[in-house]
Please model this.
Amino acid sequence: MTQDPTTTTPPEDPKAEWIPPMQRMLDNPFLLLFLGVTIPTVFYLIWGIMEITQIPIAK
Amino acid sequence: MEAVSQFPPLSIPERVFRICGVTGLRVELNAERLIRANAVAAVLFLALGGLFGLLVALTRWPAVHLLSSEWFYLILTAHGADVLLFWIIFFEMAVLYFASSTLLNCRLAAPRLAWLGFVLMVVGAVMTNVAVLQGDSTVMFTSYPPMQAQPHFYLGLILFAVGALVGCMIFFATLVIAKEEKTYEGSIPLVTFGALTAAIIAVFTIASGAIILVPTFMWSIGLISTIDPLTYKLVWWGMGHSSQQINVAAHVSVWYAIVAIVLNGKPLSEKVSRTAFFLYILFLQLASAHHLLVEPGVSSEWKIFNTSYALYLAVLGSMVHGMTVPGAIEAAQRKRGFNRGVFEWLRKAPWGNPAFSGMFLSLVMFGFIGGISGVVLGTEQLNILMHNTIYVPGHFHGTVVAGTTLAFMAVTYLLVPVYFKREIMFPALARWQPYLFGFGVAGIALFMMGAGTLGVPRRHWDITFSDATLRYGFSSAAFLMMALNGMAAVLASIGGIAYVVIVVASITFGKRIPDGPATRAATGPTPMAAAVTQYGSAGTLHLPGTLVLVGIFFLSFVLYYYVNWKYLSQIWPLH
Amino acid sequence: MAIYPPTNRVWWREPVAKIEIAWIVIAFVWGLVMFGTMVGWHIWGQQNLSNEAYRTTPEAYLAKAEAMAEKYTIGEEGDSGLPIVHPPAGSDVYLVARLWQWWPVLQLEKGKSYRLHLSSVDWQHGFSLVPTNINLQVHPGYEMVVTLTPTEAGSFGIVCNEFCGIGHHLMAGKIHVVEK
Model:
């Protein structure tokens, strides 16, 4: 991950320190919300429902 | 130290805030009223659900066998809903408002909407209780179809969930306002981050609940002809188990808050603790699969990936918290001079302060009892040994009661003075309350786990099978375990009643605490606001006591885990 | 302090103490070991669930169970009215879960394998073989197949451990395992 001054330093606050990407992610509640809802929806719900719909009919 | 400097000048009218006379925290009045209302509702449902729990335990104590079978199953259904859902979610709403408004020094977003959410939750909780007590909705908390409850049983749960979702939205909106109005600098506090974790898990929880309960409600009024039982179970546990993961995130935040408030302890590392919460956000909810490990037609690949929270990464999060919380306590205690030997810091901890003792018991019991048993129970093959035995309620009384409920009780002793402006009454009783409740619940959890290992089923009125056509005779050890469980439940109930009495008495008759002066300078016994210190004081990270504690934990974990594999290897081969 | 914003704006770059790093590594490796144990047991272990399951209907399932019982009934379990069925070793064995009985009573031979089918014809039930402690969930509309090999002779109980209404605690069945 390279340091990109145009995105990491908000123009209105020239004093702001460079914030590492991981910290910026953890400081972003809506990104976390997106991840926290998507991951269990995909791996638990959608994958699980796919398994159930693929159960064959008994002979 | 002058803490006022870190907060920017106020851009909102001063009058909606007051300064807490105990902590120096600025409390917004809308948030305060909502926190009070949610906390009171929580305690009322705890009292009701706790009473039901005692009746259940006394019925399963073979020599007492209190209730008739009809009443037993009815009361057990109500017990699950009232304590597992209503008590805990109401309290969590209070925690969310505390962690957003008060800790971020910010006005609460849309207070009217927040009240609407609260009213929906109350109406929903009451409606479901009425449905159960009317007697036609004895379907257990899980309400597996094709067994059907009355429509208002499901409707109550849906309304409650919608209300809780509103509360989560208020939390997120308050985060946005606080950032825009710059009521804090930098990142949100760790406790707020933990609350954010809880709120995120809550959104998934409530969404799963809506996906399955809305069609189930329509089925109960005849608009849909069938509900597939397997799909129901899959999606329902997206709610049922994840709601318990909200608790984990919330009570870990409460641990951090109590360590900060009572001991001025600071997290060993913001980075490590926040990353541990981040692992919760990503993976904790996958463990809903714990309930589907012996289900037909779901592949082992799905089961193993989900039940292990993706290679146990969420367990890694919990193990990290399990080290950083006692580590923070040890560091804080050593800093104030309790440096002799390995454990002077622990011996000289404030064991007479119910906020601390409750928190520490919650930490230890959640880890050793609830945590280890949860991983064992959630191992795909080991689940064959214990699925639906009374080991399962044994495990989750270790997590939700000894862990979450005890942590919430502990933090109540700190929140009552802040939000109700009253001193805690009966301090002598309060000193003992966490021990009574904690050891009682530890007994409940361990004895139920013991009985479950002997095959005793959960949700069962009569393990003597006295009226059955065919019988099975459980060993006398199983009966002894169930009797001990009953006795432990009596002890826990005494602790629970003490809590309710102390809280109700304190908020109605406790000595009033005046507001503090209009500065952020600290007064009173817990100088929270003045305790902001720098990180990186390297001398505090000599933590031999914590090292010993986590070492014992790790050994117990490994041993118990492989003892169960050994046990599994002795049952009939199956594939 | 955990209740205030971090004092260092860039807390991500604060050094992490060795003790914490060591514990994280141990916990991470332990997680991999536990994950590997589950996977490894599928390869080397004797106790795993099959993924064999079918969609069925109560009528179809009941018909198969009754056909098996008609062929292989060898007696009656006491005065319970329940048939004792002794299916041939290695065959498909059907156990019906219903309000509130496990039907029929099975007689199996020690050391022989059976393809045990499980389904419910009404609500959900819980198959709990005691004191052996094999617990499986039984759904209506789904038929689960596990290949089971009794390793000890004697009389075993089947307890229902999923709540199935007001007679839940009356629902018990039996499997007899006999020496060959």
Observations:
- Chain A has a mean pLDDT of 82.
- DSSP finds three helices and no strands in chain A.
- The radius of gyration of chain A is 21 Å.
- The helical segments of chain A are 5-8, 21-26, 29-53.
